[in-house]
Design brief:
Length: about 375
């Protein structure tokens, strides 16, 4: 793990050196301007690192000052890198075939940097607006089982809220309102309520917003990898203050009509129970809904007679081209799929990690209209 972070830091640093140098080349000769540019750039470069290293120690208001510009820079930096590489390639080819004077080179660098930053800032604004307007996704599901007195149910599925410094209580209140407007019979949450640490959730008393969720059959939750990254003990201490039914390698029989099964997170607990063991005492004649944060090994759900698996974790890549990477990594990186009698849905998440941008993806609330026969 330490080696991974060292490599990630080196890559992050090298990218920043390249982006910084391109900007430096476009600056006027004024030493004052260059000093201001260097200081601002250094702050942005370090802000994410300091915020992450100090997330369990720094005051919340300091984390807010650091975390938003730091995480936003991750996306801006990536798009600037792509833009500068592309335009550098064009510049290189032009210079080979036509040559270029020093004066024209300086003009090119100014135009390159101005255009790059303008396009990327516009893209970031679009991404923030996109994130701020979650989509309601409706999915019809037919389960060929008897579900007690229920012929149909409306189940709202959400995942990856990532509450913390970036996604605060005010935004959570809007999300709760949006969920309640769907008038669900049941709510399921597939992990990652907590982002990087529990401190801001405790300080803002975010458990109060979870008390406002309205679903007559209850709200059920399984942990994600970020509950472990944030510290599983403080994460569970916070979650126990809410009205959520915590399912950690456990299940609940809802109104003697259907089972909600919650698996522990695969990364957080590699020794979690097998799905087969979890289902040992379950009546397979009743519908079974599985919550499993990470959508790996989908064949397990089908092999064990699960009717609906709901997962998250992928964010559908969050920002392009991450969605293309997700499609390559996962059998189902986002959306709906059916294998045999098992239905699968992987949500892109209601919240997100890091930069508050959705580019090429959407934040979503999933509404399952389930019919039983």
């Amino acid at each position: 793990m330490n080696l991974f972070f060292i490599i990630a830091f080196l890559i992050y640093t090298l990218i920043n050196v390249y982006v910084f140098y391109r900007g430096w080349q476009a600056l006027p000769k004024s030493k004052r301007v260059k000093w201001i540019y260097a200081i601002v750039y250094l702050f942005i470069f370090l802000s994410f690192i300091i915020a992450m290293l100090g997330r369990n120690h720094l005051p919340v208001f300091i984390q807010k000052i650091l975390y938003f510009p730091g995480t936003s820079w991750l996306a801006v930096m990536m798009y600037l890198l792509l833009f500068f590489i592309l335009t550098d390639l064009i510049y290189f080819l032009y210079r080979i075939f036509h040559g270029i004077s020093y004066k024209d080179k300086k003009k090119f660098r100014k135009m390159q940097v101005f255009t790059g930053y303008s396009l990327v800032i516009a893209l970031a604004i679009y991404g923030y607006v996109q994130f701020s307007h979650p989509k309601i996704v409706e999915q019809e599901i037919v389960i060929h089982k008897n579900s007690g007195n229920y012929k149909e149910l409306k189940v709202v599925g959400i995942s990856d809220l990532h509450l913390g410094i970036n996604i605060d209580k005010k935004r959570l209140a809007k999300q709760v309102k949006l969920i309640n407007e769907q008038h669900p019979d049941l709510i399921v949450i597939a992990g990652d309520i907590v982002d990087n640490n529990v401190l801001p959730l405790e300080k803002e008393k975010m458990w109060e917003e979870f008390e406002q969720l309205q679903a007559p059959l209850g709200v059920y939750f399984c942990p994600g990898n970020h509950e472990y990254l944030s510290g599983i003990k403080p994460s569970m201490a916070f979650l126990k203050k809410t009205k959520l039914h915590l399912l950690i390698d456990n299940y609940a029989l809802v109104d003697n009509s259907l089972y909600i099964i919650g698996r522990d997170d695969k990364q957080g607990n590699p020794q979690r129970k097998s799905l087969k063991d979890l289902l040992t005492n379950i009546n397979p004649a009743l519908p079974m809904v599985l919550l499993d944060h990470e959508p790996y090994h989908l064949e397990e759900a089908e092999a064990n007679g699960i009717d609906l698996q709901f997962s998250g974790h992928t964010h559908n890549g969050q920002i392009w081209p991450g969605n293309l990477v997700v499609k390559w990594i996962y059998e189902l990186g986002h959306g709906y799929k059916q294998r045999g009698n098992t239905h699968y849905f992987v949500s892109s998440g209601l919240g997100l990690w890091g930069p508050q941008f959705r580019i090429g993806t959407e934040s979503e609330v999933v509404v399952f209209n389930i019919k039983f026969n």
